[in-house]
Amino acid sequence: MFENRKIEWERQGRGQGTYHCRRCGEALFSAQQKFDSKTGFPSFWAHLDENVQQQLLTTYGRERIQLLCHRCGLHLGHLFQDERTPSRVRYCINTDAVQCQKEG
């Protein structure tokens, strides 16, 4: 669906900081791994440490990978295959689930 859309990587100076869980404050994603996937959702190609848990979700007659905060279990979004990224996956994140903390 999005395979042919060009990725727009974060502009110079905007790729600084860390995205944290809005509920518990756990560090989840680096702004350096954020990109514009043209989906309308914040998208990342990797997560920090083991702070994002993956769980199989079977709803609406299909299977998906649900992403949860490892510390508090907050639903963050979903994981999709995406050949355009260095990791070949896209972490599609709900805007309300994370907050960005800029570096110094």
UniProtKB/TrEMBL annotation:
EC number from the UniProt entry? 1.8.4.12
GO MF term list: peptide-methionine (R)-S-oxide reductase activity
Keyword field contains NADP: no
* Alphabetized SUPFAM superfamilies for the sequence: Mss4-like
Q: Which GO terms describe its cellular component?
A: cytoplasm
Q: What class of enzyme is it?
A: oxidoreductase
Could you name the domain of life of the organism this protein comes from?
A: Bacteria
Which reactions appear under catalytic activity for this entry? L-methionyl-[protein] + [thioredoxin]-disulfide + H2O = L-methionyl-(R)-S-oxide-[protein] + [thioredoxin]-dithiol
Task: Name the UniProt key words of this record, in alphabetical order.
Answer: Oxidoreductase
Q: Where is the MsrB domain?
A: 1-103
- UniProt-listed Gene3D superfamilies: Peptide methionine sulfoxide reductase
User: What biological process terms from GO does the record include?
Assistant: protein repair; response to oxidative stress
Q: What is this protein called?
A: peptide-methionine (R)-S-oxide reductase
Q: What organism, scientifically named, is this protein from?
A: Rufibacter quisquiliarum
